[in-house]
Amino acid sequence: MTDEPKTTYKRVMLKISGEALMGDQGFGLHPPTVERIAREVQSVHEMGVEICMVIGGGNIFRGLQGSAQGMERTTADYMGMLATVMNALAMQGALEALGIHTRVISAITMNEVAEPYIRRRAVRHLEKKRVCIFAAGTGNPYFTTDTAATLRANEMSCEAIFKGTKVDGVYDKDPAKFDDAVRYDEVSFDDVLQKRLGVMDASAIALARDNDLPIIVFSLDEPGGFKGILAGEGTYTIVKD
Ligand code: UDP
């Protein structure tokens, strides 16, 4: 273990969207992709970093889509939150298969499936190097899992949120559509809000800004990317004041 890269981070939040788990399928869960991401988490866990995770539900259900199709919004949002529990369980299975101890902690009580959220208990899990996967978002409709990740990161005293995406940072315009899109190395919370840079939704950005919690946007498709950034390498954008 002596040649392991050193990290200055002791505790981090990894936020990934549900879509990150669906591979090229366009919907649902792709087990080899879940396993690949679990290995990325494993490599950071081996560095001794305490890891919180929040996984979205967009690969299964998003409340806004349901409400656009005529469903009542809050019901649709609860369905979205339940989708995140499925993703959390899939990630738990993949991590435990790699020998990592985990807890799925749900904001909506479902004792047979996951632990209820009790802040001090979750902190203890982290101290024991268990990966805590926070499921069911904030437990409230009209929020997103980006806000849930920011909320839990604050509650758990994480030093940063790592937002894994398809691209290696925040660009001034969509790099998938514009060849001349420019990546920021660093950008302020206020610029993200004013320029609507689409890092996370506005509530999440404001909550991170007001609590001085930096957000590191990086590519989850880059093998070793998560560990690399923790070791001080790689390409990413840091959002901070
Ligand atoms: N959701 C919610 N409250 C929360 C978190 C999530 O109502 O605190 C619902 C909401 O309907 C959302 C869905 O769960 O659309 C899935 O979460 P999200 O869209 O954030 O997933 P992602 O885009 O990250 O995959």
Automatic annotation (TrEMBL):
Name recorded for this polypeptide: Uridylate kinase
Taxonomic classification: Bacteria, Pseudomonadati, Pseudomonadota, Alphaproteobacteria, Rhodobacterales
Any one of the GO BP annotations: 'de novo' CTP biosynthetic process
EC number of this enzyme: 2.7.4.22
Family assignment from sequence similarity: Belongs to the UMP kinase family.
Binding residue positions for ATP: K15, I16, S17, G18, G58, R62, T165, Y171, D174
Highest taxon listed in the record's lineage: Bacteria
Enzyme class: transferase
